[in-house]
């Protein structure tokens, strides 16, 4: 291959309308990727058209869809492409993203895909260790409850594997649930009944601490996780920190890029 061949990494995220969390998460992931890959141009695409529209209308900010990013790279003469999603699992968003990318395959010499955060068993273990760096001082009598997104896609089983692996690695007071699938709030409440913690720490297991974290998890609505746990008699503290803020989590994405080369 000609050494002057133009290389790029397309970083694909779901996106967020909360600018503060974007700066701490998606922006930081992209900055780390840029620093680790000085020979490649870095492009951004988001998969949530609703969030893209919202930012355009509210802030006048244009963010590419995957198709728009592919067309921009073709115009720029990119020939070797690595696509790295910041998705947690190999779910619907990831499948659709791959379809959109591969529709343009004829315009590139090579297209490779890095994998989402939780793809292999090793990924799950590494993600847990990176995540628990922040929680190594969690008292035994307190519980940590993580809010994942969840999906109807069969890849949702990654959350159950994650929950099991936390326990297997000795973190018996960590529970994980999802907003839209299994495990759900009733499962978590059953787990908490067994643990009887003096206090619950509630934090998102999502790349960004966006709308789900601020509203579904920590919001004032009656059905927010915080209020449901408090209604069940627990003391709750919320921590709005997205996975993109954890250096160890960002390193897993860097590793997935290297593994795709």
TrEMBL record:
Q: Which Gene3D superfamilies match?
A: 3.40.50.1400
User: Which GO MF term does the entry hold, naming one?
Assistant: sirohydrochlorin cobaltochelatase activity
Q: Name one Pfam family in it.
A: CbiK
Q: Which residues bind Co(2+)?
A: 149, 180, 212
Q: Which residues form a coiled coil?
A: none
> What superkingdom heads the lineage?
Bacteria
SUPFAM superfamilies in the cross-refs = Chelatase
UniProt keyword list: Cobalt, Metal-binding
Q: What is this protein called?
A: Sirohydrochlorin cobaltochelatase
Q: Which organism is it from?
A: Fusicatenibacter faecihominis
């Amino acid at each position: 291959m000609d050494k002057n061949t133009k290389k790029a990494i397309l970083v694909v995220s779901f996106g967020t309308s909360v600018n503060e969390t974007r700066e701490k998460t998606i922006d930081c992931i992209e900055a780390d990727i840029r620093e680790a890959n000085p020979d490649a141009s870095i492009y951004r695409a988001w998969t949530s058209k609703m969030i893209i529209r919202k930012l355009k209308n509210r802030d006048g900010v244009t963010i590419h869809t995957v198709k728009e990013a592919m067309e921009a790279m073709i115009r720029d003469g990119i020939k070797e492409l690595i696509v790295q999603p910041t998705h947690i699992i190999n779910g619907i968003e990831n499948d659709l993203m791959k379809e959109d990318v591969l529709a343009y395959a004829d315009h590139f010499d090579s297209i490779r895909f890095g994998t989402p955060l939780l793809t292999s068993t090793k990924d799950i273990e590494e993600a847990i260790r990176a995540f628990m760096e922040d929680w190594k001082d969690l008292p035994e009598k307190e519980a940590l409850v993580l809010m994942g997104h969840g999906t109807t896609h069969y890849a949702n089983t990654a959350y159950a594997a994650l929950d099991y692996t936390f326990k297997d690695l000795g973190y018996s007071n960590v529970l994980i649930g999802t907003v839209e699938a299994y495990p759900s709030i009733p499962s978590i409440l059953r787990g908490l009944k067994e643990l009887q913690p003096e206090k619950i720490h509630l934090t998102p297991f999502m790349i960004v601490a966006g709308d789900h974290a601020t509203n579904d998890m920590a919001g004032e609505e009656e059905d927010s996780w915080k209020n449901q746990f408090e209604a069940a008699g627990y003391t709750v503290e919320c921590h709005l920190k997205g996975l993109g803020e954890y250096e160890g989590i960002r390193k897993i994405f860097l590793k997935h890029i290297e593994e795709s080369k």
